[in-house]
């Protein structure tokens, strides 16, 4: 079984989020809680359903990831783009998901 | 351009407040997602990979400076400083907060804009020739008819829950710049022997997973029958269009399965019931709407001819820009200017807030306050005096908006692709950027001549790859991106669907493949006047297959 994390988009602003070990929705995949066995995956799925029902997040999905040298990496390109943001420099001062980049 | 009346203002403002209430109830948890999703889609709010996306309608691609400044303001205040102009002549914002969308819609309403019917199974934004009103080859301006269709179709109760979305395009010119034959309904304005205005009516075109060229079901429809006949088509579609399978629900499938002749018969039967009802367009109404689209006061500016010759001689870059991006206007002292949103290596269709503001300023100063968005994702100033081209050019250069590539190989259409879109399987923008960089040299582009590359990141074909001279379709294969190449597509008056040339190419190989195709064309064309599409139609796919695959078994794989 591939390792899994729970991801969604935040209701209020649509930003991609992942569930961490403390049950918070965080903006970095690297802070996500990784489910490595079936019981943990079931728990993720239950948490996702509850969060959706609680109107905190939308588009909730369990996704496959791998851990390479301590870095979490989704198996599907789609999820990698979601985790890292657009692969293009889409506007002056912006890169990836996080908004303005620091001035050099 | 059309101005809202009191009813329009009240209607759009009412919808904003209705949506504000819906968003408030959604955020408080009173409305569940299942109930809310169709409501947000009716107001143009999608959920994409990274955030919500707001698609704003630009009716038939026409707007003025005041509206463009609000689009810039929204990009700055509510988004990340840019917007993306689309192949539907609309603009999309990629990062709006749901909680901000009612305020954004209120800002839009303040300049007579909205996001209604930019999603859902309804009649979408009616598109038109971006040179409407200015082109020398035009019989009549298509925009009054597009506006009449817009008013008729806005929240039309009978056509708000169609089997699937529905797109109408109108052109008034011999050269089809609105791609009417790949729309659900395509209307071609023409005059009959008596000099009366009417429409050739095409039905059942479309791209997506099943590309179809529309069938002409009426050679001349009098203008007074526009709404009654369109209603008849919609009724036949609404009744018989398939609702059991989303992928077979567009009218193109109905036309294909029914046959154009039988469908035309069914439409005629409906039309007979509707022809002389309240849907008949009174001439006075057509004239009233047409008045909104009157030409600006194009005074004689003959001094522009001499000035232009001098400026071109003095500045080769300016001369190249005029050659490529300025088309003859129906008034000899004027030109139609294409402002390219395809900088070399840039993102097709994107404009920053400051660029949008600059476009608004320049339109006011040099273009009678008229701006268009083309389905090729560029900005158009339809009326510019030749005498004003040089100062306009300087203003565009200052904003990085003077790329001289309209219609050339780097004037690439690309959908947002997997960088943004929840439906995409592969990225479109990075590929467009790589091809643009590869062919960006001005001399090389000029040597290649007219060549339309169109890129879609999934089979839904928002990037119009089926009608690209070279079409690129991104697919996902074994978890990685792969690009399928089609050749020979065209979306003009001689519409054709591109043919798949062989097996797909990995991302790192696809630009080389495009170069191989281009080099093959350069080697076999009769002379530089034979553009890629004509050469392809003459020789067929084989020389390109041989060049790409060396006659190996790979091509069939």
From TrEMBL, chain A:
Q: Which InterPro entries would you find in this protein's record? A: DUF2849
Q: What species was this sequence derived from? A: Rhizobium giardinii
User: Mind telling me what this protein is named?
Assistant: DUF2849 domain-containing protein
Ranked from the top, the taxonomy reads: Bacteria, Pseudomonadati, Pseudomonadota, Alphaproteobacteria, Hyphomicrobiales
TrEMBL record, chain B:
Primary enzyme class:
oxidoreductase
| Superkingdom of the organism of origin | Bacteria
Which InterPro entries does this chain map to?
Answer: NIR_SIR_4Fe-4S, NiRdtase/SiRdtase_haem-b_fer, Nit/Sulf_reduc_fer-like_dom_sf, NO2/SO3_Rdtase_4Fe4S_dom, NO2/SO3_Rdtase_4Fe4S_sf
Indicate the segments forming the Nitrite/Sulfite reductase ferredoxin-like domain, all copies.
52-110, 330-397
Gene Ontology MF, one: metal ion binding
Where the record annotates domain Nitrite/sulphite reductase 4Fe-4S, the positions are 119-272, 410-527
Keyword field:
4Fe-4S, Heme, Iron, Iron-sulfur, Metal-binding, Oxidoreductase
Give the EC number(s) listed in the UniProt record: 1.8.1.2
Q: What is this protein called?
A: Sulfite reductase (NADPH) hemoprotein beta-component
Q: Which organism is it from?
A: Rhizobium giardinii
């Amino acid at each position: 079984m591939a390792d899994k994390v729970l991801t969604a988009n935040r209701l209020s602003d649509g930003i991609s989020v992942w569930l961490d070990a403390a049950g918070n929705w965080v903006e970095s995949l690297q802070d996500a809680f990784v489910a490595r066995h079936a019981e943990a995956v079931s728990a993720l799925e239950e948490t996702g359903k509850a969060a959706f029902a609680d109107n905190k997040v939308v588009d909730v999905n369990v996704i496959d990831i791998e851990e390479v040298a301590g870095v979490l990496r989704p198996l599907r390109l789609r999820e990698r783009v979601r985790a890292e943001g657009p692969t293009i420099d889409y506007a002056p001062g912006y890169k990836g998901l996080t908004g303005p980049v620091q001035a050099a | 351009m059309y101005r809202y009346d009191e009813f329009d203002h009240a209607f759009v403002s009412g919808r904003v407040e209705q949506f504000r209430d819906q968003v408030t109830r959604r955020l408080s948890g009173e409305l569940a997602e299942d109930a809310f999703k169709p409501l947000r889609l009716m107001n143009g709010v999608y959920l994409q990979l990274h955030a919500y996306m707001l698609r704003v309608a630009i009716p038939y691609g026409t707007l003025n400076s005041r509206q463009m400044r609000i689009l810039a303001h929204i990009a700055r205040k509510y988004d990340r400083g840019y917007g993306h102009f689309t192949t539907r002549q609309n603009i999309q914002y990629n990062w709006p907060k749901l909680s901000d969308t009612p305020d954004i819609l209120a800002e839009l309403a303040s300049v007579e804009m909205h996001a209604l019917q930019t999603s859902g199974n309804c009649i979408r934004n009616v598109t038109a020739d971006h040179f409407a009103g200015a082109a020398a080859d035009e019989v009549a301006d298509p925009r009054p008819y597009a506006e009449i269709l817009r008013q008729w179709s806005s929240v039309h109760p009978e056509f708000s829950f169609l089997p699937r979305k529905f797109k109408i395009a109108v052109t008034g010119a011999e050269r089809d710049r609105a791609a009417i034959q790949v729309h659900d309904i395509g209307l071609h304005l023409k005059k009959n022997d008596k000099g009366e205005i009417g429409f050739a009516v095409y039905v059942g075109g479309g791209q997506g997973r099943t590309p179809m060229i529309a069938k002409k079901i009426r050679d001349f429809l009098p203008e007074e029958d526009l709404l009654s006949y369109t209603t008849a088509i919609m009724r036949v579609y609404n009744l018989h269009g398939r609702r059991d399978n989303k992928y077979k629900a567009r009218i193109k499938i109905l036309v294909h399965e029914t046959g154009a002749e039988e469908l035309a018969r069914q439409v005629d039967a409906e039309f007979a019931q509707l022809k002389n009802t309240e849907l008949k367009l009174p001439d006075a109404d057509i004239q009233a709407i047409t008045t909104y689209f009157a030409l600006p006061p194009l005074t004689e500016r003959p001094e522009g001819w001499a000035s232009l010759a001098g400026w071109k001689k003095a500045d080769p870059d300016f001369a190249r820009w005029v050659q490529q991006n300025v088309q003859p206007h129906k008034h000899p002292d004027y030109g139609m200017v294409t402002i390219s949103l395809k900088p070399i290596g840039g993102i097709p269709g994107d404009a920053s807030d400051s660029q949008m503001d600059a476009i608004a300023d320049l339109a006011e100063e040099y273009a009678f306050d008229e701006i268009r968005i083309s389905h090729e994702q560029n900005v158009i100033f339809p009326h510019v005096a030749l005498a004003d081209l040089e100062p306009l050019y300087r203003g565009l250069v200052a904003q990085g908006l003077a790329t001289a590539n309209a219609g050339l190989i780097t004037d690439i259409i690309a959908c947002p692709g997997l960088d943004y879109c929840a439906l995409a399987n592969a990225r479109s923008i990075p590929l467009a950027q790589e091809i643009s960089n590869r062919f960006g040299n001005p001399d090389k582009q000029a040597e290649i001549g007219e060549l339309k590359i169109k890129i879609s990141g999934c089979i839904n074909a928002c990037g119009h790859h089926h009608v690209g001279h070279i079409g690129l379709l991104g697919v996902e294969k074994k978890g990685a991106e792969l690009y399928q190449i089609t050749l020979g597509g065209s979306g003009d008056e001689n519409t054709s669907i591109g043919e798949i040339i062989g097996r797909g190419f990995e991302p790192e190989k696809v630009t080389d493949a495009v170069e191989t195709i281009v080099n093959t064309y350069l080697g076999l064309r009769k002379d530089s006047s034979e553009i890629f599409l004509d050469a392809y139609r003459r020789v067929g796919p084989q020389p390109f297959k041989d060049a790409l695959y060396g006659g190996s078994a790979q091509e069939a794989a």
